[in-house]
Amino acid sequence: MPPGRAASTWGFDEQDGMNKTLMGWAGALMVAVLATGCSKEPVPAAAAASGAAPASGAASGAGGPVSVSSVRAIAKDVDVMLEATGTISALNSVDIRPQVSSVITKVNIREGQFVKAGQPLFTLDARNDEVNLAKAKAQLARDTASLADAQRQLARSRDLLAQNFISQGAVDTNQTLVDTQQAVVTADRAAIQAAQVGLSYNLIVAPAAGRAGAINVYAGSTVQPGGTALVTITQLDPIAVAFSLPQRNLNDALQTMRAGGGKVVAVLPESRGEVVGKLQFVDNAVDPNSGTVKVKAVFDNANEKLWPGAFVNVRLAVSTLKGAIVVPQASVIRGPRGTIVYTIDASNKAAARPVELLYASGLDAVVKGIEPGDKVVVDGRQNLRAGVPVVERTASGAGAGRPKAGGAATGASAASGAGAITP
Asked: The domain containing residue 300 runs over which residues?
């Protein structure tokens, strides 16, 4: 056989073998695909339509009830608050300085001591002023004696004038002498008063009641009127809190002032409680740089919870919502279609109730759209849809602060996206 023909026959046989192999692989692949399609379980129509995963917990897969906790909506009066950050300041703070240059001979108080108005604080060296007072008194005694002599001379001259022994001019001269000496005596009395005033500067007393700060001098220290303050007396009870309000709330603050000051709540840091006071002052101008107005509230501070210079959160009550429907902020859900809460009906099924959020602060929210006594879902609302059966459990976390069957409530933890609203 010629070499060319043998090569041609071998190429035809090779190609035919490869074609048979590829057809075998294609048939095996088709059988595998058909087997997989026949064994796949059908997808539920509801899940395919919604595309959402089934609810977690007891509701997943079998459509059982969702475990939730709930509280009842209550009706009560709610104060509408304006919130701000305030600085505690003393109503009266006095730097004590001497009015004369002298040397301190005694310190009569201790640092941090509470003092009363008029209580001695420092004693200065008074020897020089005592000498000046004594000199003034001696001068008065001498001039008083001279006045008495001039008055006797005037009386004798009048007797002699009546007997025509002297002229009227002599009597007038004696009268002038008496008048002059009376003026001298009056000046001496004024000099004594001035010496007494200078002497009084040597005993420094408290101008008002308050707490003494750090004492900057000791016995033997030389002090001057323009020098460093000896001590600062700060009034702590009552005490003030100064804060600023936006310009839009100026009328609210003024109306609160006209109504007697309203209620101002100072929230102490680190959960140390609250102190209630009254609005006392609204500034007479709005700061053009910040668009705010300065206000001040006064608080009783007998227990010294408020300390000058510290920061506190302040809430000013500007109005009261009577009979407002209150629910925990944790139960309020905000979405693109509005604000809702989930309630539980008589058949223990969840119902989505659209509500209007009127006011929110702290742990509570005031809403419109439900009635007092309605059961509102707090925990587990993320697993709910309208009409889903629910089973109630003991509240925890956000719902632990409220009773399940009405009555007074203390609030619940704020849920994500349900923050406080500033009116």
From this structure: 76-88+236-399
Whether residues 226 and 335 share a domain: the answer is no
Residues near 391 by beta carbon (within 8 Å), at least 6 away in sequence: 58, 65, 66, 67, 68, 348
pLDDT tens-digit profile of 242-299?
A: 999 999 989 989 988 888 888 899 998 888 889 999 999 999 999 999 999 999 999 9
Q: Is 228 inside any structural domain?
A: yes
Looking at residue 401, what DSSP letter applies? T
Burial label, 33 (beta-carbon count in 10 A; 0-12, 13-18, 19+): exposed
End-to-end C-alpha distance for the chain, whole angstroms: 107
Tell whether 177 and 101 lie within a shared domain: no
Give a yes or no: residue 59 inside a domain: no
Using CA atoms, how far residue 279 sits from 233, 265, 276, in Å, is: 24, 10, 10
Q: Provide the β-strand partners of residue 234.
A: 93, 211
Token digits of residue 38:
């026949």
Q: Which of the residue ranges 10-19, 45-54, 131-140, 163-172 has the most confident prediction, judged by mean pLDDT?
A: 131-140
Beta strands 66-72 and 390-392, pairing class: parallel
Alpha helices in 101-259 (DSSP H): 127-162, 168-200, 250-258
Domain CATH code at residue 194: 1.10.287
For residues 388 and 241, membership in a common domain is answered with yes
pLDDT digits (tens, 9 = 90+) for 324-368: 999 999 899 988 888 999 999 988 899 999 999 988 877 889 999
Count of domains for the chain = 3
Measured distance CA(71)–CA(395) in Å, rounded: 8
Q: H helices within 213-325, ranges in order?
A: 250-258
Distance in angstroms (rounded) separating the CA atoms of residues 329 and 307: 32
268 assigned to some structural domain: yes
**Residue 267 is assigned to a structural domain of this protein:** yes
Instruction: Provide the pLDDT for residue 21.
Output: 47
The token duo for 43 is: 């997808």
* 369 and 241 co-located in one domain: yes
Residue 71 contacts residue 399 (beta carbons within 8 Å): yes
**CATH code of residue 333:** 2.40.30.170
